[in-house]
Amino acid sequence: MSLSREAATQFAQVLSEALPYIRRFVGKTLVIKYGGNAMESEELKTGFARDIVLMKAVGINPVVVHGGGPQIGDLLKRLSIESHFIDGMRVTDSATMDVVEMVLGGQVNKSIVSLINQHGGQAIGLTGKDAGLIKAKKLKVTRQTPEMTQPEIIDIGHVGEVVDVNVELINMLVAGNFIPVIAPIGVGEDGQSYNINADLVAGKVAEALKCEKLMLLTNIAGLMDKQGNVLTGLSTAEVDALIADGTIYGGMLPKIRCALEAVQAGVTSSHIIDGRVPHAVLLEIFSDTGVGTLITNRKTQ
After folding, report:
1. Is position 89 within any domain?
2. End-to-end CA distance of the chain, in Å?
3. Would you say residue 58 has pLDDT above 70?
């Protein structure tokens, strides 16, 4: 069935408006953290996979880092393994780490790879253990209350932080026309596996690649001011001020700090975008308005 004249004109206009953005980002690498609602709805999952394939087809190089907290929680529940969290981080003993590796490195990673390939891409799934992709060390968590003379060190098990990223491996895959899909599992010097927050892995991968954009998909519209308006076009100084005055707090703080650190380390821009919006990734790349919060290292006037 052919398009009506009005629909055809609108379609041509959309393609025409996207052209300057395609030219701007051809050959550039974008790191996209994929998780939340965008990973749970069938429609959004399909849309995400098609968007990633389209980006690669027009010459942009996507690198996907995914989460999988809800899926881990579901399997732990089925196995009657209780979940505990400290400061938003899952306490990961040896049994829990086995489940994390099974879910992230197996189930979730392979389903994303399969979906991208189904839509014409060449995705390849990796964990941080493959070729030492993500070297990690144990994350030390400390807590101090006013009555304590010194901080308490809390052991949360196999939870890690990124020490180093094997940039050569990622660049080799990208040059070979592959789309890397990375599960946030790191490896220590002793070969020990570590569960790492996916936002943090995405940020460190973006920093190591000195990429054009870091895009963090979330379950909210973006960073909001105290009146509930979405803030965008922020400089790093403006973000610091919003943290200081309490506008940014709670669960949004780690995500914003991750985006901020990436920009300060050489990533051109970071984006906190609403993964509940169909084709959110394309809208953020190929439009001026986007669908979330943009953070750059520009200087304030």
Report:
1. yes
2. 53
3. yes
